Amino acid sequence: MRRSIATVSLSGTLPEKLEAIAAARFDGVEIFEPDLTGFPGRPRDIRDMAADLGLTIELFQPFRNAEGLGPAAFQRTLHRLERKLDLMEELGAPLMLVCSNVEPDAIDDDGLAAEQLRAMAERAGARGIRLGYEALAWGTHVSTFDHAWRLVERADHPHLGLILDSFHTLALPHDWSGIADLPGERIFFVQLADAPRLDMATLMLSRHHRCLPGQGELNVGGFTEAVLRAGYTGPLSLEIFNDALRSAPTRQTAKDGMRSLLHVEEQVRRVEAARRILSDGVAETKSIATAPRRVELFDPPTPARLDGVAFVEFAVNHAAQAKLADELKRLGFRRLGRHRSKDVDLYGMGDIRFVLNAEPHSTAHSYYLLHGASVCAIAYEVDDPLRAVGRAEAFGCPRFEGRVGPNELSLPGIRSIGGELVYFTRRRADGSIDFETDFLLDDGGAAQPDAAHRIDHIAQVLPEGALDAAILFHRAVLDLEPEPVVVLADPFGLVRSRAISDQRRRVRFPLNIASGRNTSAARSVSTYLGAGVHHIALETSDLFAAAERLRATGVAILPIPANYYDDLAARFDLDEDLLATMTRLNILYDRQGDGEFFQLYTQPFEGRFFFELVERRGGYDQYGAANASIRMAASSQLGAHDTLVG
Amino acid sequence: MRRSIATVSLSGTLPEKLEAIAAARFDGVEIFEPDLTGFPGRPRDIRDMAADLGLTIELFQPFRNAEGLGPAAFQRTLHRLERKLDLMEELGAPLMLVCSNVEPDAIDDDGLAAEQLRAMAERAGARGIRLGYEALAWGTHVSTFDHAWRLVERADHPHLGLILDSFHTLALPHDWSGIADLPGERIFFVQLADAPRLDMATLMLSRHHRCLPGQGELNVGGFTEAVLRAGYTGPLSLEIFNDALRSAPTRQTAKDGMRSLLHVEEQVRRVEAARRILSDGVAETKSIATAPRRVELFDPPTPARLDGVAFVEFAVNHAAQAKLADELKRLGFRRLGRHRSKDVDLYGMGDIRFVLNAEPHSTAHSYYLLHGASVCAIAYEVDDPLRAVGRAEAFGCPRFEGRVGPNELSLPGIRSIGGELVYFTRRRADGSIDFETDFLLDDGGAAQPDAAHRIDHIAQVLPEGALDAAILFHRAVLDLEPEPVVVLADPFGLVRSRAISDQRRRVRFPLNIASGRNTSAARSVSTYLGAGVHHIALETSDLFAAAERLRATGVAILPIPANYYDDLAARFDLDEDLLATMTRLNILYDRQGDGEFFQLYTQPFEGRFFFELVERRGGYDQYGAANASIRMAASSQLGAHDTLVG
């Protein structure tokens, strides 16, 4: 596929945008007119710049409110059109986007509109320029792709074709299955954008909340597959109007945009494969199964099978290493071993592995200097680490090579978009995880029953505006899927939270964005420097026993207000003894259908991250969002208390 | 009036909220249950705290999904109700807000709902507690105040009354004129909130975009007048769900909230006065003109008549003073005089007066140290400066007393919400402005024709989240009215702009909020420290002549891209010579009906603020928003160029 992006999708001046687009290896670009109007050079300068960068100028846009006009107004349109065709000749743009009229006084007459489109196409054709007509979802009379197509068909001019846009098509409750039946050669251009499903007017959603495909909730993959089935062979082009992207770093947006297009292409492959299965033996008029596709789609290594989090690595110095080791021991962890050549300790409990890295001059050390004691890497247990890294690289993630001592294992790893490291490791035939070979293992020690046996979820805090990019990264690279957005109320601001997880729930990451600077989430991590792990939830099969053990070993537990338990008593029919025990042990409760959830929190380690212990019963599949406000209120209280006692 | 606020309207912990509410001199408070649930003490601690602070606990809220239930579900509601009545007894809250059921499976049966409300009122009454029933605008079956009233009337229990909320009433397209006909003693409580008119679902608007009365577009004054006409004598209570306020400084929100309630009360007086005029000689069933009102409304000094901006004061040091003086002279200003005792110069052109304050150890000096060369004060010409200050003080603005030398005038002034000074001054019988007596005036000098004669508008940049408070301040204190919001695209982010002005257009302030940190607006002022004047537009009667003069004197004019003029040629039927002259002089153009607008910009002074010259023809009444993107793109280009040349 040729890959393109509209300049409106990125922040910056037009030259900055073009450079970033080229650096992210797009083939082409749509020039959004206001970007050109504000550029202090001439259209030919942009033509030259794009050529130097190896970018094709695919399209010039938008030309508005052009059809369905009275005679005088249409004369003014033709005057305006000629001026813009002059510009396009100088720019070297072969195609103009003409969008359906949105003026309230547009004339509702398909014959008139088609005639005017034809007259315009005649003018454009005389210059060797083509026009693509696009239905805006809020067009006064023309708001659907099929209505736009009827006008194009009726106008019947070789220089007039259709432009399809996934947002305008998918945002309306309008059947789009007919797209595959369109004649592909009459589709002149295809724009892609995703969006969340928000309960607001389509115009507002489009202008401010579009997002990159894979970040929202529209079926962009299905739409694109239909377009290709129709026989379209032109570029796929991102056109994103999004408030956050308008002020986001230009190069990062371009990189994310490329990852998004690659993700769409893979989705198309999946839709095709599904269609092949369903159509087995069924005759289809236009089938991807019978007609060879005429474009090449991105074909990355398939996702490795994710079996869980193999280990979490903490960047520490010596003091923090000792302190965190003490905290972990109180939680029931044992020291499993020490690294052969580095100042790194391994702690474990059940299947949970924590690496405490205090090695000087290491990547972890740099991370420690920037962020303090914090999680600097996460390792996944997968069936094929090399395939996992290959896939990540195919999606534009740089491979990471750490320092490796003689006879030590080089863990395949990448840098995630926030700068953190992600490793891939696998379980060997003897049940051990391969990274453990680098550790001189301690002898067992008195094995007490484990308080917890696996990592349930790892909650992260991201800087404002970074959620969409993180969702796309996890979705494309790790094949995780996002869960619904929830909004949590901290005493000092709202926290938007969206978890991303695999189908088998082996890996769950609630990703949080704090809207204020004083929320407990924002205070606990360096949100201005990068993403940060906020808490790690450990799953236990008996939270009450575990809580008693934690009391005995002196782990500082987050105190939960008594009012919370009065409210629980009002909302749920809970046994009085159980409620009394929960009150004593600071255990919170949630219910979902027949599922029940019990959770408790430790107090933050150095005010930065904390641990959670959870017990899931009866298929409970959430994270206790109903209790998050209580946790944040209790945590902010703790901060106040901390200040009081110095 | 008793004045109250719901704790959900503010950020912080419950004790912080109560302290801020008391400090802003509210009489009472609504306790929002989650605030109490997250508080690590008991309800009685809050009762004691409120009593110590002199606050009445007016209401406990919300109690949800209580009516229209099947028998088993209603039994659970009664169980929940009893627990919450226990809590309210301990809290000392006399009234509970019960809001209409929003569950999809609520039963649509007024008789059942009324019966269940009556049963609940019976339980509450046994404890001496009253229930207020409120229709949520998105209630499944009950969504309007009159429907809620029919249920309350039908339930017919002395402990059950109606709660009215301006948001739920005004956000729907539902006739609310019947409010005045309700029996006032059956209205148990009144909540006030405003909102912008945004094209989104009412639920989303309510949860995230409510604002303080006077900040939005709902007729809260008319609503409140109707409530009082009905005979309601209870508190007016703010209930604001707003994302920005959830992370805003608690005390500032409380102060703004009080100002908002005072503004509403004055609006009620105005509605009453208008009704008195209209009802002169007309018999009304319930008339404010015949029935004495039973509550006292806030009665501030009436607004002074605003005749324009008398002067703008710049904080400078000696170097900046000389540099700015040079810039002003090139613009056509003359030095009019020097302050009798301070290091302060006065410059003027036409009716425009600029004060350049380099006095050490002054307020201006502190401002200079914080913000660099910048506008530190604005003085208004009014008919009665003391009344203007008296009104501002009544609305909670602290009076400012500067250092005054012997025989010098003490200008009445206040501190605005951003910390800037606002002075009030008046024109004397001889035509001079009174503040000029403090200056030793220079002899005239060669008077050339003025390039500009008055200040057209002063554009300011506010920190994110501060727009609503600024709108309310200007509306309440200075009797200005907001114009519609426009969204402008800077290459590095969106800029939301809302102008506020007086009816006679003597004073116009476009207020801007930049969503990114790199927009030209955000870069030019210290948005993290406080508000800042971004540019000052001077009105001229012949911009072309003025532009030629500026060329001659060497003022650096913002260069406008040639592409802009090509676009003008496409959009408007402009004379070619005119267009060529505009291109040469960097003059921008806009049209609105028959009105025309010509404008040009100077390059920023020390990268911070700049001047604009404007010519309005034929009643043009805007600010050239269509050109703002071009100005911002050109300005960002300038920044890049500045960097290149060092």
Descriptive overview:
2 copies of one chain form a homodimer. Chain A has 646 residues and is an alpha/beta fold. Chain A folds into 3 domains: 3-278, TIM Barrel; 306-441, 2,3-Dihydroxybiphenyl 1,2-Dioxygenase, domain 1, CATH 3.10.180.10; 454-644, 2,3-Dihydroxybiphenyl 1,2-Dioxygenase, domain 1, CATH 3.10.180. The first copy, chain A, is built from 19 helices and 25 strands. In chain A, the strands form 3 sheets. A 9-stranded mixed sheet of chain A has the order 14-15-16-13-9-12-11-10-17. The model of chain A is unreliable at 640-646 (pLDDT under 50). The interface between A and B is large, with 58 and 58 residues.
Our count of helices of chain A gives: 19
Overall shape of chain A: it is elongated
- pLDDT < 50 runs, ≥5 residues of chain A: 640-646
Mean pLDDT of chain A: 92
Largest interface: A-B, 58 and 58 residues
Kindly report the spatial arrangement of strands forming the biggest sheet of chain A.
14-15-16-13-9-12-11-10-17
Radius of gyration of chain A: 28 Å
The counted number of beta strands of chain A is: 25
Tell me, what is the CATH class of the largest domain in chain A? Alpha Beta
- Content-based structural category of chain A: alpha/beta
CATH architecture of the largest domain in chain A: Alpha-Beta Barrel
Mind summarizing the main beta sheet of chain A?
A: 9 strands, mixed
